[in-house]
Write a structure and sequence with these properties.
Strand order of the largest sheet: 1-3-2
Radius of gyration: 14 Å
Helix content: 25-40%
CATH class: Alpha Beta
Strand content: 15-25%
CATH topology: Rossmann fold
CATH superfamily: Vaccinia Virus protein VP39
Number of helices: 3
Structural class: alpha+beta
Shape: globular
Largest sheet: 3 strands, antiparallel
Order of helices and strands: HEHHEE
Length: 99
């Protein structure tokens, strides 16, 4: 938990592809992370730029074959999101399918 923000581009897309590959259709991933938001700027100062925004995480999920089933703040500084793989999706790499 709280370490996915350490995965920087371009490995972040590969990370999402791997999650998609290993999760069964209809399965889910729980992502617990700090966000680049006001509360974390108060707590971490400029270090909060190291975190990703909620939009970045949500776009990563959607771009790699998941839906964001739910999302909520579990502390003033940490968000938990549930990414659900569509039940009808084939278990293959979503972002870069093999022709």
């Amino acid at each position: 938990m709280l370490a996915a923000h350490e995965i920087r581009d371009p490995l972040r897309a590969a990370f999402a592809d791997e999650l998609f590959r290993i999760v069964e259709p209809g399965g889910q991933v729980i992502l617990v992370e700090h966000l680049r938001d006001a509360a974390n700027f108060v707590a971490f100062g400029p270090g909060a730029w190291h975190f990703y925004s909620r939009r970045t995480w949500d776009n990563l999920a959607v771009d790699h074959g998941f839906t964001v089933a739910s999302s909520r703040m579990i502390t003033p500084f940490v968000r938990a999101a549930i990414w659900r793989k569509k039940p009808w999706t084939q278990n293959c790499t979503y972002a870069s399918p093999v022709p």
